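Progress report, Aim 2. The chain analyzed during this reporting quarter is listed below.
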Amino acid sequence: MGKGMRAGKKPKTKAPGMGGGNMQKQLQQVQAMQRQMESMQAEIEEKEITTTAGGGAVSVTANGKREIVNLTIDKEVVDPDDVEMLQDLVMAAVNEAMRQIDELSNSEMSKITGGLNIPGLI
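Predicted structure tokens for the chain:
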């Protein structure tokens, strides 16, 4: 008898859920989740987010691919003597658009993954 074995005691079996049939089922579930995630990613890429800065003086629209598709600047904020302010407004609007796209993507994907933290989804 091996160490720790007593007469009449059966050796421990594999952990439940490690059988071949169950592994196949898990693989099918993962593949289904992957298809759902791909479909969701395609939907997200089609969505657009519009953000503003400076009380609407700068407006940025970005799509789910994280591309800027529209940028509008109110001519009243274009001051050749204060280019830095305009740069700040554009950066603020773009950064907010990117943040909202990330938030949308994370929110939609977590509906599929059940909150699992799977790297590389975005």
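Residues 83-113 form the longest helix (31 residues). The chain has a mean pLDDT of 84. These observations will guide the mutagenesis work planned for the next reporting period.
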